[in-house]
Amino acid sequence: MTVEGTAARKPRRSSKRTSASATKAAGALSAEPQLVQLLTPEGERVQHPEYDIDLSPDELRGLYRDMVLTRRFDAEATSLQRQGELGLWASLLGQEAAQIGSGRALRDDDYVFPTYREHGVAWCRGVDPTNLLGMFRGVNHGGWDPTSNNFHLYTIVIGSQTLHATGYAMGVAKDGADSAVIAYFGDGASSQGDVAESFTFSAVYNAPVVFFCQNNQWAISEPTEKQTRVPLYQRAQGFGFPGVRVDGNDVLACLAVTRSALERARRGEGPTLVEAFTYRMGAHTTSDDPTRYRLDDERAAWEAKDPILRLRTYLEKERLADAAWFEELEAESESLGKRVREAVRAMPDPEHMAMFDHVYADGHALVDEERAQFAAYQASFADGEDK
Amino acid sequence: MTVEGTAARKPRRSSKRTSASATKAAGALSAEPQLVQLLTPEGERVQHPEYDIDLSPDELRGLYRDMVLTRRFDAEATSLQRQGELGLWASLLGQEAAQIGSGRALRDDDYVFPTYREHGVAWCRGVDPTNLLGMFRGVNHGGWDPTSNNFHLYTIVIGSQTLHATGYAMGVAKDGADSAVIAYFGDGASSQGDVAESFTFSAVYNAPVVFFCQNNQWAISEPTEKQTRVPLYQRAQGFGFPGVRVDGNDVLACLAVTRSALERARRGEGPTLVEAFTYRMGAHTTSDDPTRYRLDDERAAWEAKDPILRLRTYLEKERLADAAWFEELEAESESLGKRVREAVRAMPDPEHMAMFDHVYADGHALVDEERAQFAAYQASFADGEDK
Amino acid sequence: MAVQKLPLAKALNESLRKALETDPKVLVMGEDVGKLGGVFRVTDGLQKDFGEERVIDTPLAESGIVGTAIGLALRGYRPVVEIQFDGFVFPAYDQIVTQLAKMHARALGKIKLPVVVRIPYGGGIGAVEHHSESPEALFAHVAGLKVVSPSNSSDAYWMLQQAIQSDDPVIFFEPKRRYWDKGEVDTEAIPGELHKARTVREGTDLTLAAYGPMVKLCLEAAAVAAEEGRSVEVLDLRSMSPIDFDAVQASVEKTRRLVVVHEAPVFYGSGAEIAARITERCFYHLEAPVLRVGGYHAPYPPARLEEEYLPGLDRVLDAVDRSLAY
Amino acid sequence: MAVQKLPLAKALNESLRKALETDPKVLVMGEDVGKLGGVFRVTDGLQKDFGEERVIDTPLAESGIVGTAIGLALRGYRPVVEIQFDGFVFPAYDQIVTQLAKMHARALGKIKLPVVVRIPYGGGIGAVEHHSESPEALFAHVAGLKVVSPSNSSDAYWMLQQAIQSDDPVIFFEPKRRYWDKGEVDTEAIPGELHKARTVREGTDLTLAAYGPMVKLCLEAAAVAAEEGRSVEVLDLRSMSPIDFDAVQASVEKTRRLVVVHEAPVFYGSGAEIAARITERCFYHLEAPVLRVGGYHAPYPPARLEEEYLPGLDRVLDAVDRSLAY
Ligand SMILES: Cc1ncc(C[n+]2csc(CCOP(=O)(O)OP(=O)(O)O)c2C)c(N)n1
Ligand SMILES: Cc1ncc(C[n+]2csc(CCOP(=O)(O)OP(=O)(O)O)c2C)c(N)n1
Ligand SMILES: [Mg+2]
Ligand SMILES: [Mg+2]
């Protein structure tokens, strides 16, 4: 994964890809995106006039460790899918900095609304990674308690969680709390009406919510140009709140920008849109075959911008971590992989009757009737065996 | 209707009304709206650096005539509703300039997608005004042939027509035609997901469509601040196309701005959002009671900006029309009112069986069955009478 | 004081007021619910008394209304959402069907979504398109939702109380053409169960089952039938999900004939479900097939045709005759 | 050449290709239908051959997809829209129900909306949430829509041709778990009518009626029943709106027993409509109530439970036994 390379290191500009039909006039609107960066792909620490961050060596190592362990977990899940232990997996490969940076910006009392790919954010929230695997294995639809880590269930219907986040944030404001809410979504999701409506509601009610868009350049097979002809972060302005584009492969910048947006929310200044400019290094999910729609070159260029590699370079250069530390982390990685593997294999199938559970909180006569019928039906086979 | 007055003549700025919760940071985004104006409320012709228009006396009189006749028609419909001839009426009072200005900017081959209030645009398209009344009388749901005047049916589900307009415009582009499409919608509608999606689609496909938002300050009882905290025209920019705010009570400015946006569409430069800043002088519909939610003062201030009055002042001052001409128009108005009144009263109720017509173009077995059953059922009463 | 004669809309208003008073977590949200008090005045005066933080005028976006209500419920609130008219619930349909209905199960019960979606529904008020729909079957088919409809002021008051107290999402269909009908409300009564049917007229020859706006019509039909010597029982189903099949079965075992009446189109309507299940339960009791009276498979017609489209007295009596002719 | 053995998905692909070739107004649109060829490859190779102007990758917004398809249809095009999975049609539900279904009637027939909405539907493929829904009843209840579902490759090919040629909006449900099942397609045959049922196995003791993915299951059940000496007739309904009640009636008048099988939840499902209407039509013929086998009133379960949730061979045979026991 840690590939050296000298390929183009500057983030590709959306405008370059704007479809032929897009006009000059439109092009003129899409000024050079202001990409916030604090750590270059080469591992150089750079300054930014608006965003800065001062982290202790411990904190820096912590971010590195988070990214490495998240990647390890993700790789394990991918291979568990190949082994048939999971039905599907949506890999976050390449998006570790966006997720760890934003995830580590959160306070415990902040609330997270993820898509289906925020395994790194879940990690930061302290969600046991094996909890994430139930739905991909097909034993539940999520099933964890969102309130125990303030990490909502994964949402598959694209964009719909942005409204839940907005409503939750409206509630936070009503409570007079100074917590904030973060809603994750993708570049593709930006086209959904629900996302626009969440922008409208959050702006009108001045809700303490951060919209964190991971622009990983692809929505399955569709490049971002199929969703917009100007950089996505600009979308916010027309709704009356700021948008900012951050280097999504730079964990420091993601942390700084998200923290600032969260603080803004806490101060009662309302929503912010953060566009983390990153790349989906793998397939959309394990069911997908990206060779049908994208060129290897593109991936190679992004490998040179790997979020983990650049922080390693920096840690090494600045002597913030030694070989022993890296080795220890490697061992920790392996044991995480092993633990996840074992946990998944031990995950029992649900009881058949479980499908009638939790349809309603207060019960429903028909569910009771069908449950009883089903039980009798199943019992009829047992009876048959007896005879 | 033509009320003199010295009340504040400058358009009220949205920002003034921004709810207390909106923050300074957001306020900073909402710069002074650039309101395009060519004719002041006092009837002074002013210049604008970007938009100008040169109209013959005939054309100027024509615009005035359109507005007067539209207002007369509208008043007639309101009184027909009071007399019980219509079930409901949605008055355009106060929005004549926005509708006539934009409507007269269109070419015959352009296509219009209205809401339920574009009686003035319908007039410009040559739709017989009585055609508009069927749905308000309850004899049909519209029923006119949209293709005969390139004026689509009224759409009641807020915002949905903006997508139809976008699709239609995509088709125009596919055909290689240089026609344009215009979609009308309101300030309230701007919050609907469909409107945002139409912005996305039209931008991505560079569709030749003009989004014409009549910001009449109210969505039934809700002021525009319940929909947005920045001026609506700014919404477009985040989708990658220009937005412009025009004095919606200035028929010249509305004509100039819409014409320019249509030309842009024809040139293949894609969509434009026009926000016509105007005012709903009457109730939302005849079912509504605006005294419950807004103050008379506000209406009074807007009366001073009346779109018809200012053009009349200008025509008189410049001696472009004499008393005889105004009198003749008055007579024409009265005869239009009479014609509409008579036409509505003569409008027959639909045949009962008509409810089974046009459910499908190619027929449907169940509709046939139900039609036959209904006919037999009705016949059973006739039989009963015979006996 | 506890017993008042109130129009149905006013009973709902009192019920909302009670809920807002009792539970600080209850919120009322929707388009024009504030100063205007809703287009039917069901929320009249509530914003004035409970403030903009609890009675919330929302942007004009139904998906947004329901979606943010879900978020508010996750934060511990109990939002009561108003959809302005039946025909405008569909932009919110995705949020209702894929999120509101399923989230409790998705979390294996670890979260609850006490959201009430109030929808004025049905025709008969001479309205324009989209203002007279009866889409209840489109919600009742969806597991995770409860679907109810009161037919009178007392039920309006109490069923709304119960819906708000329920920890499940409830789609609350209000019979808009009965908003102005007055009925007694005893605000200190002990209410019946939310999902139980009620026998509103006893009879022995045939059962008419209905809910919402059609209950009154069925009572009228039963009265006319009585003059003709026929004893018709009328059931107010009150709940379309779950349906109180036990009550219908008990009635049909007695009367042996059933006619279901609703405004919604018959095709794939709630009458189909009732007919199918009751036929299964009462196969040997039924002397006639379950008959259905409802809307046709056609878009709700313009106002001047709605009388023909909607079930009326004659059509109900015709079905009664046809059933008794078996 | 005219007769080929094709997987169902490939038959659809050939049908789209044929339509694109024959009529320049036909468009294919949806998420990932271009280079990827759709997540199920139903549109494989079409963009390559017909270009981006006719095979259109859309933004990720289903309401936008259907809404713009309506506009394109108004401009004279015949869009064939792909919804990626059954569970993602709901953001488009408003456009489908309030616009697509009603616009022809709203215009008193003066405009037509030849739009096909293709939806891969149903379970049995081990997928995550929202990827296994069977929402056909939610469309069939709505006047103005036609709703069909092929069960085999030949119907897939021909019914899609006919749906595209239809001047009405057609919701075209594709049985995704049968995509890989091969069947003969005669591209020069004279197809049957789009909305007529087909008897796929003759029998005398009982009728099984199904559509889409459940037809194959019913054929298997009939084969097992035959071994047990029971002659089961199997009807492929093919169309859920309209439903070919005449064909069901004719079969039931012969067999006197009917079991309807679908994956969708039984409660308010298409089986209810069929049971209600056929009971009315065949009241004196039926020796048992119409029985229904389908999904439960619960969200579609996680993959490891779907076998229990879905109708399987045993559940169908159980219903056959129960019916014959009357
Ligand atoms: C409403 C809806 N439509 C379609 C899908 C199918 N789908 C799943 S993921 C996806 C692409 C999402 O792209 P993006 O938002 O960029 O997120 P990413 O997968 O890149 O993280 C699509 C179309 C869905 N889940 N929900
Ligand atoms: C989807 C939908 N929701 C609600 C309504 C009810 N409704 C009709 S008009 C209206 C307000 C529209 O305001 P705006 O868009 O500003 O247009 P205006 O009436 O001011 O011209 C509302 C809420 C509707 N017609 N459609
Ligand atoms: Mg993406
Ligand atoms: Mg308005």
Automatic annotation (TrEMBL), chains A, B:
<dbReference type="InterPro" id="IPR029061">
    <property type="entry name" value="THDP-binding"/>
</dbReference>
<dbReference type="Pfam" id="PF00676">
    <property type="entry name" value="E1_dh"/>
</dbReference>
<keyword id="KW-0560">Oxidoreductase</keyword>
<protein>
    <submittedName>
        <fullName>Pyruvate dehydrogenase E1 component subunit alpha</fullName>
    </submittedName>
</protein>
<feature type="compositionally biased region" description="Low complexity">
    <location>
        <begin position="17"/>
        <end position="31"/>
    </location>
</feature>
<dbReference type="InterPro" id="IPR017596">
    <property type="entry name" value="PdhA/BkdA"/>
</dbReference>
<dbReference type="InterPro" id="IPR050771">
    <property type="entry name" value="Alpha-ketoacid_DH_E1_comp"/>
</dbReference>
<keyword id="KW-0786">Thiamine pyrophosphate</keyword>
<feature type="domain" description="Dehydrogenase E1 component">
    <location>
        <begin position="65"/>
        <end position="347"/>
    </location>
</feature>
<dbReference type="GO" id="GO:0016624">
    <property type="term" value="F:oxidoreductase activity, acting on the aldehyde or oxo group of donors, disulfide as acceptor"/>
</dbReference>
<dbReference type="GO" id="GO:0000287">
    <property type="term" value="F:magnesium ion binding"/>
</dbReference>
<keyword id="KW-0670">Pyruvate</keyword>
<dbReference type="GO" id="GO:0009083">
    <property type="term" value="P:branched-chain amino acid catabolic process"/>
</dbReference>
<dbReference type="InterPro" id="IPR001017">
    <property type="entry name" value="DH_E1"/>
</dbReference>
<feature type="region of interest" description="Disordered">
    <location>
        <begin position="1"/>
        <end position="33"/>
    </location>
</feature>
UniProtKB/TrEMBL annotation, chains C, D:
<dbReference type="InterPro" id="IPR033248">
    <property type="entry name" value="Transketolase_C"/>
</dbReference>
<dbReference type="InterPro" id="IPR005475">
    <property type="entry name" value="Transketolase-like_Pyr-bd"/>
</dbReference>
<dbReference type="GO" id="GO:0016491">
    <property type="term" value="F:oxidoreductase activity"/>
</dbReference>
<dbReference type="Pfam" id="PF02779">
    <property type="entry name" value="Transket_pyr"/>
</dbReference>
<dbReference type="Pfam" id="PF02780">
    <property type="entry name" value="Transketolase_C"/>
</dbReference>
<feature type="domain" description="Transketolase-like pyrimidine-binding">
    <location>
        <begin position="6"/>
        <end position="181"/>
    </location>
</feature>
<dbReference type="InterPro" id="IPR029061">
    <property type="entry name" value="THDP-binding"/>
</dbReference>
<protein>
    <submittedName>
        <fullName>2-oxoisovalerate dehydrogenase subunit beta</fullName>
    </submittedName>
</protein>
<dbReference type="GO" id="GO:0000287">
    <property type="term" value="F:magnesium ion binding"/>
</dbReference>
<dbReference type="InterPro" id="IPR009014">
    <property type="entry name" value="Transketo_C/PFOR_II"/>
</dbReference>
<keyword id="KW-0786">Thiamine pyrophosphate</keyword>
<keyword id="KW-0560">Oxidoreductase</keyword>
